[in-house]
Write a sequence for this structure.
């Protein structure tokens, strides 16, 4: 299994009515040098300016981004290239990130290379710490910038730390 840490930025709360505007992915292995960055042209006329502001983008900028179908095809090809076996989707907020990635894969390519399940980094940490109030974010080394590759990399660093320092049994 190959763990791929993913982070999504969007212009609203749900796929379809709103758009995934960018995402980053990192193959979780050291030295975290296999990354993917996608910038997607909006698929809807609806957008939330506050959601765009989180990513420091304007609607006009996102309208110049790449065709979502091509981005998702490129992402599927990248996953196949970096994974020798089954890819495992993991993210900081898999409820949000997963719904966009899964929806976009099915809408634009007809299939999701991750299958039908995802993993949540925060829940994994809470289980290891045996405390549902604990947060893993102090384990990131890369600053959380809302650039999706930076954020995915920071989360991947935290997952590696869970293996090294917390004894998480995981094949990376």
């Amino acid at each position: 299994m190959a763990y791929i840490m993913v982070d999504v930025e969007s212009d609203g709360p749900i796929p379809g009515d709103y758009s995934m505007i960018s995402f980053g992915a990192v193959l979780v292995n050291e030295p975290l040098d296999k990354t993917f960055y996608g910038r997607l042209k909006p698929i809807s006329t609806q957008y939330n300016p506050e959601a765009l502001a989180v990513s420091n983008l304007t609607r006009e900028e996102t309208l110049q981004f790449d065709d979502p179908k091509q981005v998702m095809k490129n992402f599927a090809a990248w996953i196949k290239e970096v994974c020798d076996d089954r890819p495992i989707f993991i993210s900081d907020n898999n409820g949000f990130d997963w719904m966009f990635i899964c929806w976009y894969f099915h809408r634009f390519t007809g299939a999701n290379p991750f299958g039908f399940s995802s993993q949540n980094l925060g829940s994994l940490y809470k289980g290891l710490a045996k405390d549902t109030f604990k947060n893993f974010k102090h384990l990131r080394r890369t600053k959380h910038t809302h650039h999706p590759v930076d954020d995915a990399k920071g989360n991947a660093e935290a997952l590696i730390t869970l293996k090294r320092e917390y004894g998480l049994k995981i094949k990376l």
Observations:
- The radius of gyration is 16 Å.
- The longest strand covers residues 2-10.
